[in-house]
Amino acid sequence: MSTPTSPYTPRRANGPARNGTAGDGLDLDPEVFDDGFGFDQIQEIAWDDQPLTQNAPQVETVDPDKVSVAVDNASKIYRIRSGTEHKNSTKRVGRHLQRALGSGWSEIPALNELSFVVNRGETVGVIGTNGSGKSTLMKLLTGKIRPTSGEVFATSTPVMLGVNAALVREISGRENIKLGCLAMGLSPKEAQKKFDMIVEISGLHEALDRPLKAYSSGMASRLQFAIATSVDPDILLIDEALNTGDAQFRSRTKKRLDEVRAQAGCVFLVSHSLGTIKQMCTRVIWIEQGRMLADGDPEWVCSQYQEYTDHKSNGRMRAAQIVYDRTQLKLSPVQVEFIDGTRPTKAG
Length: 348
Ligand SMILES: Nc1ncnc2c1ncn2[C@@H]1O[C@H](COP(=O)(O)OP(=O)(O)OP(=O)(O)O)[C@@H](O)[C@H]1O
Known about the structure:
This protein is α/β, with parallel strands linked by helices. The chain has helices at residues 30-34, 39-43, 91-101, 134-142, 173-183, 188-202, 217-229, 247-262, 274-280, 298-313, 317-329; strands at 58-62, 67-81, 105-119, 123-127, 149-154, 159-162, 235-239, 266-270, 283-288, 291-296, 334-338, 345-346. The strands form three sheets. The chain has a six-stranded mixed sheet, sandwiched between helices. The protein has a four-stranded antiparallel sheet with strand order 3-2-5-12, with helices on one face.
């Protein structure tokens, strides 16, 4: 486990042990652990148990002059109709499936009582294993979906840059830039002014007149990134879009993100690449099974996550669970407080 070198002070971890290993009493050597470390003790901790943390809530008063995003106790439960998938089956197969699987509604808890505040100038990495709720959080921030309970506030409409952001496959990169700028609310004159900068950031000078369908997925991602960041969004959400770029593009991307941050914006970056997260972010939120497990220093949070996923991918589930619990024990729940009359707009 590494000790962080960054001067960043995590806002949600507790006491002297928040950044490192001292004091949590649960550090473990995976090899020793695998050989029979206190199994009874571990059995008490089920994956779906309520958080073990008994820490007193830490009140975060939202400063209206600084805040970009405030998430106040937000949960999301998706409701799906288990019968829906049978619609395309033949009647007979559909009936069998219906009988076997049952029909009606089922609920998928995707996020559980998340609270945090992000101020301008922060670049927040969001990590977590597949299905942990990262994209759901991004959709809540853009207002694309509403929380089942709790509230999500943003000082301006966040711009979402995802791998599936709309580009038109049949027209050229050049035409996509123009169209994309207009779609993002720029006037034709403003779009014209931004054109050169977008080409520069995307690095696609040579391929500008090719139809988009002749671009590789990395090239298309670069174009999306360049278009989406051209409007200097106050809040920018990036979902995995950077992973496809090459080293040169990454360095241009980082430069552009720094510029966005400098213009008082804030950036959320969802990625499975810990290298990208550590390179780009000033703070990292780890969401696992819909719960926030950590929020703080990128080096420290990523090292815990790395340890957790290493154990999991090697089948050391109990060791992974210890890392999970140990990390969770350091997390103080946040209680978001607004000064009267200063609530930002609800997302969406
Ligand atoms: N539209 C939906 N309807 C029902 N369930 C959904 C929907 N979208 C996501 N889920 C479920 O919510 C949970 C969280 O999904 P989400 O896409 O937010 O995870 P993620 O962390 O972004 O995953 P990944 O890393 O694989 O992209 C998962 O159990 C997923 O199956």
